[in-house]
Design goal:
The chain is an all-alpha fold. About 70% of the residues lie in helices and about 0% in strands. The protein contains 18 helices and no strands. Helix 1 crosses helix 10. It is globular and about 70 Å long. It starts with 11 loop residues before the first helix and ends in an 18-residue tail after the last helix.
């Protein structure tokens, strides 16, 4: 039975922080060192990727005008291409979220060690990782009000030190620290592509507002606004932070740095307290990202379950949050985390994490394809009236950006991701066969009843 009570919806500020918080996790704290070997042309790669990410954000905003329902990419893929495409979108997104959540929890452990150094054990590390998963899960289970509050506070807390380094670092900028434009050698185009392959996944999360459209105030307007504002905000922090670190840490040191933002703070003010400051910001950043991604891991199966494409139990909501989806997602992430710490090898864990790099792009491609379909099939009024050429350009740019994400994932990620995607076909077969045998070919409505196929 779905939650019948009035729940507090996300406003534009909270929705924007949801996008920003989900885009920026813990990876930002290593980004400057990751792209330093390619030289300052990596900044050009940032700009190109930002344009593509904003185009995709605008596409999600356009699609939300047509159908502002929870589920975002899944909703639009199903509307354009049918149940099977919708299921593949939801399946890919769902698996990506809970595997990524396990990876984020494990990443948090390393930063906690910086804050509390000592003789760590696997048992202690496992406890910390599980705590990092379940504390944000409890906030989700408390309802959308708490999700929004945690997301807003964590986003502010993590952006204060990041913006501090990004802005104050400009006053300590030394051009002599800047490395060559194309440090990797070869063609500049090849260098931009190589840097972009590392940076591509820094923008995953641009769809967060669209995924939670049903829990937003005025989603027809705010999904697009929050998506663009959140993406632009994340891009500004990425770009300014990278420029500041490039200018405060010598290039020869930066390429070997394991904590570039900490090194930048130490270079600006001396001492070694920068490591503690940045480690604290990283922990807050990861917890905030987990808070948002745990919600995303529940929204995808909730939307699909309402249409009969996932088990109906995923439609259960309390206080605006799909509680079963939260529980299942966190339990799966917890199991994966336990396996990581008890198997004695990170091989299985690393393989699953690699799969997420491909799985995340499937819903993007299908959503951008849906926008193109609506425009080219004479249904452009379903998305937006007027300005057909501009909307078509945006859709093509969003599709191109998504396709670039796939190519940047690498052969191993695409190969393993496709296998995992095809494994979902078996799940779809079972669910579709059960629906057919039970004669319940419709969707679950807001009051929990099953509507016949074709009934609005």
């Amino acid at each position: 039975m779905l939650d019948q009570h009035h729940t507090r919806r996300f406003g534009l500020p909270t929705a924007t922080t949801l996008v920003m918080g989900n885009i920026i996790g813990g990876g930002i704290f290593l980004l400057p060192a990751s792209v330093a070997p390619y030289g300052t042309l990596s900044l050009l790669a940032f700009v190109v990727l930002t344009v593509g990410a904003i185009a995709l954000a605008l596409v999600f905003g356009r699609l939300a005008r047509r159908d502002p329902s929870t589920g975002g990419p899944y909703v639009h893929a199903r509307a354009a291409f049918g149940d099977f495409a919708g299921f593949l979108s939801a399946w890919s997104y769902w698996t990506m979220t809970w595997v990524s959540n396990a990876a984020l929890a494990v990443a948090a452990v390393g930063y906690v060690h910086v804050l509390a150094p000592g003789h760590a054990s696997k048992g202690t590390d496992l406890a910390i990782a599980l705590l990092a998963l379940w504390l944000p899960a409890l906030a989700n289970l408390a309802g959308t009000r708490w999700v929004g509050a945690v997301q807003f506070v964590s986003t502010v807390l993590k952006f204060v030190p990041l913006l501090f380094v990004a802005v104050v670092g400009l006053f300590f900028f030394d051009p002599h620290n800047i490395g060559p434009f194309n440090a990797g050698g070869g063609s500049a185009v090849g260098g931009v592509s190589a840097a972009a392959a590392i940076l591509l996944y820094s923008y995953l999360g641009v769809e967060s507002a669209s995924m939670s459209a049903g829990e937003m105030e005025n989603p027809e307007r705010n999904v697009g606004r929050a998506s663009v504002l959140g993406t632009v905000g994340a891009a500004v922090v990425y770009l300014l932070g990278t420029v500041s670190v490039f200018g405060t840490v010598a290039h020869k040191d930066l390429v070997n740095s394991t904590a570039p933002f900490s090194d930048a703070v130490d270079a600006m003010f001396g001492g070694t307290w920068g490591g503690t400051l940045i480690a604290l910001a990283a922990v807050v950043s990861i917890v905030g990202a987990l808070n948002g991604w745990i919600l995303m891991s529940a929204q995808a199966p909730y939307a699909a379950a309402r249409d009969g494409l996932f088990p109906a139990v995923f439609t259960v909501k309390r206080r605006g949050v799909p509680t079963v989806g939260v529980f299942v997602g966190v339990i799966l992430a917890s199991v994966l985390t336990v396996v990581n710490y008890t198997s004695g090898s990170n091989g299985v864990f690393a393989t699953l994490v690699l799969i997420t790099t491909f799985s995340a792009t499937v819903p993007y491609l299908l959503a951008a394809g849906a926008q193109l379909y609506f425009l080219l099939a004479g249904r452009r009024e379903k998305v937006r009236t007027g300005r057909f050429v501009w909307d078509l350009v945006l859709a093509l740019a969003g599709f191109g950006f998504s396709f670039w994400l796939v190519s940047g994932a690498g052969y191993a990620a695409v190969y393993q991701g496709v296998l995992f995607l095809f494994a979902g076909v078996l799940v779809y077969v079972v669910i579709a066969a059960r629906r057919q045998s039970q004669g319940a070919g419709g969707a679950v409505t807001e009051n929990g009843a099953v509507a016949e196929a074709g009934t609005p």
